[in-house]
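User: Here's a chain of 151 residues. Predict its fold as tokens.
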Amino acid sequence: MASYVYDPQSCELVPKDEYYANKWAAQANAVSDLPSPYIRSDIKPYQSPVTGKIVDGRAERREDLARSGCREVDPSEYKPIYRNYEFCQARRLPYMGDAIPPPMTRDEKEWVKERKLKAKPPAPPADPVKYERSKPNLAPILKDIRKAKDA
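Assistant: Prediction complete.
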């Protein structure tokens, strides 16, 4: 059994497949390959680390780099240098320091833990909160109920 859809242009019922095929074909022709242009915002003003002048905008940045004989570092050129051995071991990163320190002995590890504990003052014990259950004052409520019964 075929499904039909109302076509507002022809004002009649049209098979569903035909209607949507025509509609999508019209939309495909109307849409460009580039749905919206790419607009890059200007950079925020900053102080040049080389000249010390305020650089405001991309054009000034290019001029400042050219005047000072500098260039941008490509992300593929950047190689971070890690000099903390424990940091590298914990994150499985390459160690770039001068010499690899020997691993800590058990006594050294305990000494470090004790030193950290001594550096932090112990937290004061929390005062326990005492809750007391009070009896509700039902006298005014009972008076109202008795007055309602008498009336």
